[in-house]
Amino acid sequence: MPDRKRIPAFSPFLYRYRNLVERFFNKLKHFRAVATRYDKRDDNFLASVQLASIRIRLRHNESVTKHPGLAILPSGPQ
């Protein structure tokens, strides 16, 4: 590759957060109501986007916060 006269600007910080945002929108598109814009009214669509975002966040928190000291008690008759 020939010598470049102008080196493109690159910020690892911005690249990382841009990647996170792009991955989040990709996950958001997996929700059918959001991807197809099932709700035609703006407020209903915004609510479905917010619900999908909450579900994505909760799913992420479930996979991250595993504490070995916390045991899940069995449910049902004892």
Helical segment count: 3
**Mean pLDDT, as a whole number?**
79
Q: What Rg, in angstroms, do the CA atoms define? A: 21 Å
Task: Let me know the largest β-sheet.
Answer: none
Supply the helix-strand structural class: mainly alpha
Please count the beta strands (DSSP E, at least 2 residues each).
Answer: 0
Helix content: 55-70%
Counting copies of identical and different chains, the oligomeric state is single chain
Inertia-based shape: elongated
- The amount of beta strand, in percent, is under 5%
Query: Which segments are poorly predicted (pLDDT under 50) over 5 or more consecutive residues?
Result: none
SSE order: HHH
Distance between the termini: 72 Å
Description:
56% of the residues lie in helices and 0% in strands. It has three helices and no strands. The protein has helices at residues 12-28, 32-35, 42-64. The longest helix is centred in the last third of the chain and has 23 residues, at 42-64. The chain is elongated, with a radius of gyration of 21 Å. The N and C termini lie far apart (72 Å).
Write the layout of secondary structure elements.
Elements: H1 12-28, H2 32-35, H3 42-64
Q: Summed up, what is this model?
A:
This protein is mainly α and about 80 residues long.
